[in-house]
Amino acid sequence: MRSPVTTAFALDDPLDRGLPRPGSLLRTAADSIPPSGLVLLAIFSVQLGAGFAKELFAALPPSAVVFVRIAAGALIMAVVARPKLKGMSWRDWAVGLTFGATLALMNLSFYEALARLPLGVAVAIEFLGPLGVAVAASRRRLDLVWIGLAGLGVALLAPWGESETTSWVGIGFALVAGACWAAYILLSAAAGQRFPGTSGLSIAMIISALLIAPVGVTTGGASLLQPELLLIGVGVGLLSSVIPYSLELQALRRMPKHVFGILMSMEPAAAALIGVLVLSEMLHVQQWAAIVCIVAASLGSTRTPRMPRPSRSAPSG
């Protein structure tokens, strides 16, 4: 499943001076790239954002990095989507608050997992969330194979002996993030029915930022006022939210959703590659085998489309 995004991110100039508008230029540039290329660019953008976020752990605790990342993303989304709060019913607020709380817990647990696990490992375990939702929506016996393959992947990632790169605590946080991602799938569908365009996601991100703010500000302290750290945080927000959303939106308009889901199944492998290139996280053969198992399980579960896959760019990274 992918994001409930249904409107384009256009930065149109309100003054018509006869010049090409930025939104039109962006759309024209995106149209020149094959849709599969747009999806891959979105995947690597999200994982690159996660890599830069992990680099911030040397200066800020994970909870503070989560706050900076979500606050930056929420601010950008609010400017772009301009959600209207007036006239919302109590059911709308209930969906928005639940969506925002899930988003907050998902990001916080994922970043805590990222602080204890290699990027590729954390993403692979978290990816069990949307994989579980896809399999649960099916009645095919073949899906038992994908469940077994995903279980094998987790077993290969578990630190049964002493391990310098994985920990049970990190795996626990990643599993919580995956469960929240599964809930995000259902809540994003509900928000998409109640809110136009990206306003539901924008409201959820604002609520998420407000919920995380007390923890993030307390743990980050005065370090949050350092301009260079804030700049990196804004960059993480752009790489993890705005850029992927724009690319995914353009791709979804030009390709079948099940093809989109198949391409998204490559995300754990992309995360592992970014971990190697950006963070110098060299994985063992057993960890690569585990990631291959989870990717294969995800690919198998998307062979017959049942429901859209979630946007990885919104939840975390």
- Residue share in helices? 55-70%
Q: Ends: how far apart?
A: 17 Å
Question: How many distinct beta strands?
Answer: 0
Q: Report the structural category.
A: mainly alpha
Number of domains: 1
Count of alpha/pi helices: 13
Shape: globular
The major pleated sheet works out as: none
**Could you report the average pLDDT, rounded to the nearest whole number?**
80
Secondary-structure element order, N to C: HHHHHHHHHHHHH
Radius of gyration: 19 Å
Range of strand content:
under 5%
Low-confidence stretches: 1-23
Quaternary state, please?
single chain
Protein name: Threonine transporter RhtB
Subcellular location: Cell membrane
Pfam families: EamA
Keywords: Cell membrane, Membrane, Transmembrane, Transmembrane helix
How does this model look, in words?
Residues 169-300 form the EamA domain. Belongs to the EamA transporter family. With 317 residues, the protein is mostly helical. The protein has helices at 22-31, 35-55, 62-81, 90-114, 119-126, 128-136, 143-157, 168-194, 199-220, 227-252, 257-264, 267-279, 285-301. The radius of gyration is 19 Å and the shape is globular.
